[in-house]
Amino acid sequence: MLLKDADFRVPEADVAPGMPFYTNPLVNDMPDPMVTYDPINGYYYSLGARFDEGGKSVWVYRSKTLANLRREGRAALCLREEYGLYDCAWASEMHRIGDRWYIYAAAACHPSRGYAERAMRTFVMASRTDEPLDGFDYAGLLGDDAIIDATVLRHRDGRLYLCASRLFEDDRQKLILQPMASPTRLTGEPVCLARAVYPWERVPPYDGEQCINEGPFFIENAGRTFCVYSFNGCWSDDYGLGILELVGDDPMNPHAWVKDDVPWLVKGNGVYAPGHASFFRSPDRKELYVAYHAVLAHNPDDRPVPRHCCVQRVCFDSTGFPHVGKPVPRGEALPLPGGDEGGRDRKA
How far is the C-alpha of 65 from the C-alpha of 347, rounded, in Å? Predict the structure, then answer.
């Protein structure tokens, strides 16, 4: 078990009469939600995939308030055969690195390029300016490994690392970490960071060759570095979030990452399959929030169903460990993040 206050409890949300609020699900049918707040531009940004003029597109949205997350949006890129990509833009994430933004996502590679049918690879796009809605340019594939759910670690050693879920020869999805020479290029060899080992992340049918660790995202707080990840299958009632911590100085040392022996977030309060999270700070930078997708009804057959974006606050205990508690019930009023403009949304 990681160092934490076992008695800590996340305080209940309190919305005073007349106070602006939001409710979950925040956005319907938004799997793999990526939400961030940029204090430089003063906007929340979120990503999503949608069909646009016959092709699968990655869209970027922005808003002045969390309550209206998809206030305005624009296609960042259509997947075209000229890129060797088509269909299925999975798990897109957007990160500001320096004065530019970079989108990382996975897509099926076109068989005309010599790939097997539906072979998934991760690609990267670079923004043209520091405003994501000004557009992106395709910057290529990140290597040729079958990786999905890519995210970036900006470590205190000053280096960039890519973390992703990789399909290994034993058909198990494991988390890998690899150094980056730049935001658009990998270097060195990857190491395996984590695999499914505990009973709660090996719930049938995900206890054999389908064992899954995926959807990583990093949190840094009080000198501690955490990686929150997803386990089991994304439509399973038992999809959930686990957490690792870097307990050494070298991120590339697999033994320096310790997995907590209890899950971080699981089903509850009528909310099922909470997983594939991203994290963002409130506009006043004083609070941390998690965005995750969830299924809002029992799904015993583990069949494909819509996944909806939910958001709730994360609190830190005296050791610096993050706690989220249980999923917030559907429709419960939640206070907007500190510094949020609370519905006074306006276009730039």
Answer: 11
- Write phi, then psi, for 4 (nearest 5 degrees): -165, 170
Q: What percent of the chain has pLDDT over 70?
A: 91
**Beta-ladder partners of 259:** 244
- Asked whether the beta carbons of 299 and 236 are under 8 A apart, the reply is yes
Query: What CA–CA distance (Å, rounded) separates 60 from 45?
Result: 7
Write the pLDDT tens digit of every residue in 237-257: 999 999 999 999 899 999 999
CA–CA distances in Å: residue 337 to residues 4, 26, 59, 289: 25, 14, 24, 8
CB atoms within 10 A of CB 154: 14
pLDDT digits (tens, 9 = 90+) for 45-76: 999 766 554 446 788 999 999 999 988 888 87
275 within 8 A of 241, measured Cβ to Cβ: yes
pTM for the whole structure:
0.94
Q: How many residues does the chain have?
A: 348
> What residues contact 156, with CB distance under 8 A and at least 6 apart?
220, 225
Neighbours of 54 (CB within 10 A): 7
